[in-house]
Amino acid sequence: MLNSVHEVHNYSRQARSLGKKIGLVPTMGYLHEGHLSLVREVKKHCDLVVVSIFVNPTQFSPNEDLDSYPRDLDRDIKLLEKEGVNAVFYPQPEEIYPGNYSTFVDVEELNKRFEGSTRPTHFRGVTTVVSILFNAVSPNVAVFGQKDAQQAAIIKKMVKDLKFDIDIIIAPIIREDSGLAMSSRNIYLSEEERSDATILFRALRHAKFLIDQGERNTAEIKKHMMDMINAVNSASLDYVAVVESELFLEVDELVEGSEYFILVACRFGKARLIDNFLIAL
Ligand code: PAF
Question: How far is CA 192 from CA 177, 233, 266, in A?
Fold first, then answer.
């Protein structure tokens, strides 16, 4: 286990001098199958896998769940050992953000929409910590999950704009048998809410069905989804949107040859869940 930036610098310098390709999987721990699928994906593209576990304070706003965010380091380490991960970078907050820390990375515009509108400083925290992790680990390749589609788009844009020499891979969403997208925050769901929350997958699947049937009007698609979700008592819908896949701008009509995300964010009790489908026409 590597705890300091100094140790991780040395680790990656040595690996690179031996001609090894490093793959990074950034996580906030409390790992589930979704994270492990990222490890398996990155392994295909590198010689050494580094997983970072860091619950990043700058991506939580003061009213969010930073203190109660689930943590289980021992279990995480066992899971990663089973996957044959080569190194775990587990820094303390003061290692990443010492008292005099004052530098932030912001991907403008894209960081304000959807997740950014309800969580105004969230993406600035994500892009800042991901930049720090990239500089600490110096990976050749890094993998992120499509579950956080807007985060993935923002990181791709940051890598392009800041010219990080890192290949970014976006790995598909891993779902439970019920269709519920895996997330560390699913732990906040009661049994009943967990079952109710499958409406997000069912609404997305219905949207895909409508599109497959030829529907191109996004207002119509969204109306069907909203009706389905609002019919579930415990669901408090935040947004449903159909956006183009790079800048997350909403569109009125779907056109052939383009890629879109159908996005949904919804609260069930204490858990705020997000999910999406990628639509390639
Ligand atoms: O997706 C996450 O778990 C986090 O946002 C990330 C990318 C590890 C940055 O803290």
Answer: 16, 11, 15
As annotated, the active-site residues are 35
Q: Could you read off the pLDDT of 259-278 as tens digits, one per residue?
A: 999 999 999 999 999 999 99
CA R_g for the chain: 19
With H, G, I as helix, E, B as strand and everything else as coil, classify residue 29: coil
List, chain by chain if needed, residues with CB within 6 Å of any ligand 1 atom. 26-28, 56, 59, 126, 129-130, 148, 151
Which residues are 275's β-sheet partners? 264
Residues 51-82: tens digit of each pLDDT:
999 999 999 999 888 999 999 999 999 999 99
3-class SS of residue 261: strand
Q: How many CA atoms lie within 13 A of 280 on its CB side?
A: 0
Using CA atoms, how far apart are residues 196 and 205, in angstroms rounded to an integer?
A: 15
Angle between helices 122-137 and 5-17 in degrees, nearest 10: 50
Residue 185's nearest CA partner among 267, 77, 100 is 267
User: Distance between alpha carbon 57 and the CA centroid of its chain, in Å?
Assistant: 16
Cα-to-centroid distance, 61 and ligand 1 (Å): 15
Instruction: Ligand 1, residue 55: give the atom nearest the CA.
Output: 10
Full set of structural domains in the chain with CATH: 5-171 (3.40.50.620), 184-280 (3.30.1300.10)
Neighbours of 102 (CB within 10 A): 5
C-alpha torsion sign, points 169, 164, 140, 105: negative
DSSP-derived secondary structure letter, 109: T
